[in-house]
Amino acid sequence: MNSGLVSTSHLVLGLLARGERHGYDLKREHDLRFPSARPLAYGQIYATLERMQRQGLVDAVSRERVDGPDRTTFRMTRQGRKELTTWLAEVETPAPFVTNLFATKVTLALLTGDEGAAADYLRRQRQAHLARMRDYTRVKTDPESSLSQVLAADYALSHLDADLRWMETALDRVTGLTEEMP
Amino acid sequence: MNSGLVSTSHLVLGLLARGERHGYDLKREHDLRFPSARPLAYGQIYATLERMQRQGLVDAVSRERVDGPDRTTFRMTRQGRKELTTWLAEVETPAPFVTNLFATKVTLALLTGDEGAAADYLRRQRQAHLARMRDYTRVKTDPESSLSQVLAADYALSHLDADLRWMETALDRVTGLTEEMP
DNA sequence: AGGCCACTATTCACGGTGTGACTAGTATCG
DNA sequence: CGATACTAGTCACACCGTGAATAGTGGCCT
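^ inputs. structure came back:
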């Protein structure tokens, strides 16, 4: 399940859909619209814009100075618009492979022959997840929380819970395994 | 929730824990141990090994020819062993931010002012998820499936279900929104 | 008046990460 | 004896992100 990755280009494209923007602007708009999302660095935006320009998705409109240093304004090209609508309509096919970090760690721990380490890891990881879930639950019940924060918390909670259920069964299996050993 | 990323170095380190290996070997062992995982390209392994060597995590042991082209055998250094055990014991702190691809798409679709597209996307994404879930359910009930496949399917299913629940509420919200419009 | 800080806006060098094409040796099979 | 498949690795390249550096403007405090 890697269906959690958002390409920076598409993000920028989406933010440009409403009109011309310069890099600094895009960054602030991003932070405003996606407060709970993965942080986006300034440098990242400029680098992405340059790549997108090379690919013909955006155009540098103007270069002028308004109360401060020079700013370069960008707009979507027709091709960019097309790419955006395609992407927005495109269903994300959940990856045909499964990336489960916990399973990988446990498997590798067992491979090195250390069942104790595997079980220990699982127990501590479970504790960490439970703690994180308590945090999100607090966000949900906090009347100060914004709607988008509550929605993000909901999403996070259900995925943490999914992880947790996997860990419980794995733990049963691993401890069962070690107890069988003489 | 980006707790689904496995760094290639750690993976390689784990596979090297049982003894010396050369790149080609590592690739095959990976495919054997992690059949449901993200595919790992040969080139990726060699590149990773080189970086790890630079970082002092592995050593090139020997360079010899055995029934075929030259092969370079690698082994973990003491530092590599240490890094591995640290990593294996290290609890993954779920990211402090939430990456929700579906939410991002819907938000951007709404930003461009296209509620229809947003709702439409959600409906089709839901269908895709349901289809994928049927696939995994089939894997689970298939007596031919290996244990690791069943476990992977379990994990995938619960996460797909978590996504699905998020999409259902989002869909209610978006369609409610468009119906309010004149 | 002078100094400092905060904000705006961008650039640059660099490093990790992965991809696809290519080379090259050996074995096998018809 | 030629084609093919498997083994093993190299290389050039592109993407993506980071942190530091640069540079202009305005405001505030003393």
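Helices of chain B lie at 8-16, 23-33, 42-54, 78-89, 101-111, 115-141, 147-180. Chain B has a mean pLDDT of 90.
thumbs up if we can close this ticket
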